[in-house]
Structure formats: structure tokens, C-alpha cells
Amino acid sequence: MALQFTLPDGSAREFPSGTTGLEVAESIGARLAKAAVAVTVDGEQFDVFRPLEAGGAFSVITDSTEDGRHVLRHSAAHVMAQAVLDLFEGATFGIGPPITDGFYYDFDIGRPFTPDDLVAVEARMAEIIAEDQPFTREDITAARGREMFNEHPFKLEIIESVDPAEGANEDAVSVYRNNGFVDLCRGPHVPSTGRLKAVKLLRSAGAYWRGDEKNPQLQRIYGTAWESKKALEEYLVRIEEAEKRDHRRLGQELELYSFPPDLGSGLAVWHPKGGMLRKMVEDHSRRIHEEFGFEFVNSPHVAKSGLWQTSGHLDFYAENMYPGMEIDHNDEYRVKPMNCPFHVLIYKSRGRSYRELPLRFSELGTVYRYERSGVVHGLLRARGFTQDDSHTFCRRDQIAEELQLHLDFVLTLLKDFGFDEFEADLSTRPEEKWVGELELWDAAEASLQDALEIAGVPYKIAGGEGAFYGPKIDVHVKDAIGRRWQMSTIQVDFSLPERFGMEYTTSTNDRDRPVMIHCAKLGSVERFIGVLVEHYAGAFPCWLAPVQATVVPVADRHNDYGAEVVAELRSAGIRADLDDHDDTVGEKIRRAVTRKHPAVLVVGDDDVEASSVGLRVDGEETRGVPRAEAIRRLVERCAPPR
């Protein structure tokens, strides 16, 4: 039977059944075939040597693409597992997926890995790669898989989770082999280990099996793999820079926030300078919300469990919620993981007319979510955080305009904070479980897509990845060193209006149900500030800096004049401090620079006499600047974006 493949240029070619992806690639071009690490048919990925049994849209995955690097890293994880099992007698292994910019694998060797262990593992990996061992795929029964991995309990648990029901296809498990090593895997993989040109192990850490602290703790090795040594070296430079920018370290050095052990995992306290930074972020968010027509509301931190039952959170989100508290005659209360049900209650507090819609509510609401200890990461993944959360209730005919408004809002806000590279994911209706009307889904998805195209934001369609209650777009930014961060989410919701029986009176005096739009512009204030700290390496633009100017007296006799300058700066709205420590001028300036204060004003004898300052900005110092002129410059420099 002939298979027909549609190539990326739109042309169609026929091949016999069982033709490999590599053979199809060779028919397109020898250079393309040489660069291939996998192929896709109708979006499904296959090894290049795997026989193809069905035609469709065909494309080649090369090693310099993100999909290609994903295949490289997946293959490198297998090589790492092979090396560990070779070197450590009795070792067992769990899972080893590719992740952003790298891969990891979890092992149990009875103890933590040492730095010397990682050197040995990397050396053994180099030997396996040099041997150019081919990866071969085999489909086996679950029963055969249990025999094959009978000494590896974590693999057995994986097999049990995919064991087919009685009467189902017995070929339920696929494995990959290379030179005697075998691992459960769906693939695809590079043709052979020799295709791995640039691999580096980075570190090891403890990790609970499946991320659950009730399970055994394994040892995780992290690594990275790239298509060339040059690409690897560039990445290592980036992660070195990323370590310098780590928001946890900078937060402590700049006295912004801290994570006291007595407080508990995933929770932060904010110091005065961090509190000021946070205030500036929140104030700007409020200001833009007002500009875009949102009204501010407020809600408590706890509510009866019945509210979360109605909203569906206890059915779909309970594992991320904290346990209930029994108070008030055995009524159970829960701390809130989200703000949306409260905003629904505000809407329902009285009857609503079509003339009132859209209603746009906004709240800086603190929520609490139980994150596994293994994924908690400073401000970037916390258990208590504040969202600049908004919920819009609108008519069906207003969906397109409201979604455009939300995206304009998101881009305006993110640009104000210094981000100018955007990408988005558009998640569409799941194939099976979804609520609402098909017509509404189609209209909402089309409106989201139109909004992205009008705004000129590059996007990918994540087919079937929407929540059961509606489609969404996730907006990502790139930071100063090229890392991609998910920030804002705009989510259409057909479920909560239904669950809460929300209505409004139409122009014909009938009853209709509003559509709900969720949007967190910053995501969460904590995470956003963590990203800001790393984006700017703590050297914030003047309008955001907790301390915008430091006044440095040359000697003690200049302290009174320096205090006058500070008072005048503060009266002009500049956040200024006086450094009157008994140190040299050079030490005081270095201290201000180390603390990343945007401006330093040095005052000495000549300045006292002439009512001037030495103004140091961006490393350049101008002596004898009239006091009023220096303050005017700083007021202009430190003005908010709007």
C-alpha cells in the first residue's frame, strides 16, 4: 500500500508502506537528511529509522530547533542513566525527561551523588557517545516489561500505571535499547549515541519520587545537551550570568526580602526596600487598571468549603488547597487558592442589566496554594502570593472587544516594566472533556487569535490544551539574557457562570448568562518581582528603584548640607538617603553603587558654598551641578512610564 506524504512546501509524494522517515527526508535532500534527528507525520514524532505505516503532513526535525534539542536531551538522559547503572552496582532509576535547556534523571544509589561521582558519570557518558551505539525501539507487552524491570521498582510502578485493561492491545509498553541498556520510553531518539555532540552534567540534588514527599527520596542529576560545542559554551555563559542574577541571592544582598526557615517553605517576608519596590509595582498595576476601566474590589482570605464546592475547586483543585478548618458550629472553612468565586459573589449581590456589562473587577488578592516542596523556588514558585487578579463579566457580543482590551492592557503593562519581546501560546478546546457551547468556544478562540494578530504578537497554537472551561492565551516575555518567562494569562470561562447560576436581564427583558474572562496581568506580584530582579540584575530603572539617590558628604562637616539636599529631594518625590557613615568618600560611593542606587550626589566645601552637588549617574560624574538643576534632572529621570 502506498503512503502519501505532504511535504512542507505543499508538494505530495508517495512511498511504499514501511518507508522510514530518513528515506523520505533523503528524497527531499541529502543535507536535510544528515541533519535529521527525528521526523513528524501529522504532528506525531517518529525516530528516523522507524518504519512509517500511515501518510500525512511530513516534516523533518533537525538538531538546531527546539524540537530537535528536545530529542537530543531525551537521548542524553538515556545515556546518563546507562552510565549510572554501569558505574553503581545495584542502582535503580526512575524517570528522565528533557526539560527547558536540559534534562535530568532520578536514581537511587543508596546515598547522594558527590562531585567526583558526576565527573565519573560524565566520563562514562563520553565513552558511550564515542561508541556510537544505535538506539533501537521495541514494543513489548506489559507482562514482558515487568520481567525486564523486575529489579527496578520505579519502572514497575510506571508499567502498572499503563497496564492495559483486559482485552486491550497487549503491546502496551515501548522500550529503547542501546548496547544492552534498556529503558521504558515512547521516544523518539537520535539514531545513535554518536549524534550527541555537546553534553554537560551540571549538578545533583535530592528529589522525591513523583514530586511527593511521602515517597522515597531519590537523587537527581541535571545535565544539558546542545547541537554543537559552541551552542553549549554559549549556554554555560548564560547560566553563569543567570546565577549572578539569582533573585534569592540579590534579594538578600539588596535587603529586599528573605525566606526565614521559621516562616515555612514557599513564604517570604518583605523588608523596607523590598516593600517599596513592591509598592511601586502594585501602584503601577492599579494605575493601569484604572486607565482600562477596572473597578477595585476586595475579598477575605477564607471562605466556607461550600463556596469551593460550588466553584468546582474541591473537585478539580483540592490537592493544591490547604486543609479545611472547622469553626462556627462545625462549618469548614478553607483559605483561598483563587479570587474568582468572590468576584462572582459580588456580581450576584444584585440583579444585573445588559446595560451594565461589561463589568470589570480587579483585586490585588493574596492566595495560598499547596505547592510540593520539591518545586518551591523563592518568589518564582511560592505557597502564598498576591495576584493582580481581574475578572470581567460581559455579553457574548462583547467577547472579541474585551479580549482585545485585555491583551492591549497586558502588553502596555509589561512594556512599562521594560519588556519588549513577547510570544504567546493559544490553548484551544480539549478533544474530550469541555463545557459550554461549541459556537461559543469557536468564537472565543477566534477572538483570542484575532487579538494576538492585531497586536502583532508571535504565537503558537496549543491544540486541545485549553482548560475544560474555556480557551486561553499565555503571554511570555524574554528577559535581558534571553530566558523565556510566562507572565500574563487571559482565560475565557464558560463554567463558573453556569455553576453559580449567573444571569443578567437582556434588552428584550429575557434572562441570559454572562461570559467570564479571568486575567492576571503580572501573574503574581511575587513571581513578577522575582523575574524583574533577575531581568535587571537588581539595577532597576530609576522609577522602580527602592532608593533612587544617595547623598554622600565628603566629610562630617558636610552632613548638615547633605541632609538639606536629602530633604529637598524627598520633597520633590525622590526616594533619597544620606550616607553619613564615618567612611571615605570612595567607600560611600562604592556602597551606593553596590546597592545599585541609580544616582549618587557628592557634596563638599565648594558645593556648600555654591549650593551645588557632584551628580553621578550611569557611572559618569558631573561636578558643580546647581542643586535645583540636579533635582530637576532626577525628577525627570525617575518619572514613572506614564
Biggest pleated-sheet summary: 8 strands, mixed
CATH class of the largest domain: Alpha Beta
**Through-space gap between termini:** 66 Å
What is the CATH homologous superfamily assignment of the largest domain? Bira Bifunctional Protein, Domain 2
CATH topology of the largest domain: BirA Bifunctional Protein, domain 2
Q: Which CATH architecture of the largest domain would you pick? A: 2-Layer Sandwich
Strand coverage percent:
25-35%
Shape: globular
Total DSSP E strands: 33
Residues in helix, % = 25-40%
**Are there runs of 5+ residues with pLDDT below 50, and where?**
165-169
Look at the helices and sheets and give the structural class.
Answer: alpha+beta
Number of helices: 20
Physical arrangement of strands within the biggest beta sheet: 16-20-21-28-25-24-22-23
Counted up, domains total 4
Rg from alpha-carbon coordinates: 29 Å
**On the 0-100 scale, what is the average pLDDT?**
93
Describe this structure as you would to a colleague.
This protein is of the alpha+beta class. The protein has 20 helices and 33 strands. It has four domains: 61 residues, Ubiquitin-like (UB roll) (Roll); 178 residues, Threonyl-tRNA Synthetase, Chain A, domain 2, CATH 3.30.980; 226 residues, Bira Bifunctional Protein, Domain 2 (BirA Bifunctional Protein, domain 2); 89 residues, Rossmann fold, CATH 3.40.50. A hairpin with a 5-residue loop joins strand 1 and strand 2. Helix 3 crosses helix 4, helix 8 packs across helix 16 and helix 13 runs parallel beside helix 14.
